[in-house]
Amino acid sequence: EDQVTQSPEALRLQEGESSSLNCSYTVSGLRGLFWYRQDPGKGPEFLFTLYSAGEEKEKERLKATLTKKESFLHITAPKPEDSATYLCAGEGYSGGGADGLTFGKGTHLIIQP
Amino acid sequence: ETGVTQSPTHLIKTRGQQVTLRCSSQSGHNTVSWYQQALGQGPQFIFQYYREEENGRGNFPPRFSGLQFPNYSSELNVNALELDDSALYLCASSLGRGARTGELFFGEGSRLTVL
Which among A1, A5, A2 has a CA at the least distance from the CA of A104? Predict the structure, then answer.
C-alpha cells in the first residue's frame, strides 16, 4: 500500500527564520511527487512536481528537492503570508487506470511576524 | 479562464440519506478527480473520470458513485450516508492521461456534515 508521511505535523517559525519540511514516501511505480499548499477552508493549490531523484524546483521563497525515499520543502526567509498547511503527495501506477494521488497529512506552518 | 467551482459549499444530512455534489472543471480540462478530506487529514482519492468514463478508483465502497458529462462537469453521489462520511469533498480537474496528471486544480470543496 502506498504511503506518504510528513513531518513535523506543525511548525511555528519567526519571520525570516528558514527551515525545511520533510516528506517520506513509499509509492509503487512513482510517476511524480507533488507539493501543494492549502489555506484554511480552501482547496489545495499546486506548487511543484518532481519526477526523479536529484531534481529541484524553486518558486519565490520555496524550494523542493527529491531523493529516492524523501522530498524536502525548504522555506527561506519566510513571511507571514507563507503560513498554510503544506501537503506532499505521490502519484503511483499499478498498471490499471489512474491510482490518484496519495497525500500525507500535511505540515501546518505558522510564520509569526 | 474560469477555475473549478463546486456546489453546494456546505450541507447537512442525516444518516441513511443520499447526497449529490457538483463540480464544474477548469476550462480546457477533460479529467475530473474527487477526493475526500476528513478533518486534520490529507485528501483521499475517491475516483477519477476521463472523457465521461471512470478511469480509476480508490478504496471507497460502491455507494460512492459518480458521473462526468459531455462538458466535463461532474457529480459525486453518496448513498446511505454514514457518520464517517462527514468531510470536505474536493473536486479537482486536470489535463488528460499522461499529461501532468498529478497537477490538479482543486475547487474550494463541499463541506458535508452527517448527523
Answer: A5
Q: Which chain A residue has the Cα nearest residue B89? A: A43
Which residues of A sit within 8 Å Cβ distance of B?
4, 31-32, 34, 41-46, 49, 87, 89, 91, 96-106
Q: Is A56 helix (H, G, I), strand (E, B) or coil?
A: strand
Query: Considering only alpha carbons, which residue of chain B is nearest residue A98?
Result: B56
**What residue has cell string 490518484?**
A100
**Å from B40 to nearest chain A CA?**
7
- Are B91 and B47 in contact by the 8 Å Cβ rule? The answer is no
Q: pLDDT tens string for chain B (115 positions)?
A: 569 999 999 999 999 999 999 999 988 888 999 999 999 999 999 999 988 999 899 999 999 999 999 988 999 999 999 999 999 999 999 886 655 567 899 999 999 999 9
C-alpha distances out from residue A105 to A9, A19, A83, B41, B73, Å: 8, 19, 16, 5, 28
Q: How many CB pairs under 8 A join A and B?
A: 71
- Which set of grid coordinates corresponds to residue A85? 498547511
Specify the 3-state DSSP secondary structure of B89: strand
Does A89 sit within 8 Å of B42, measured CB to CB?
A: yes
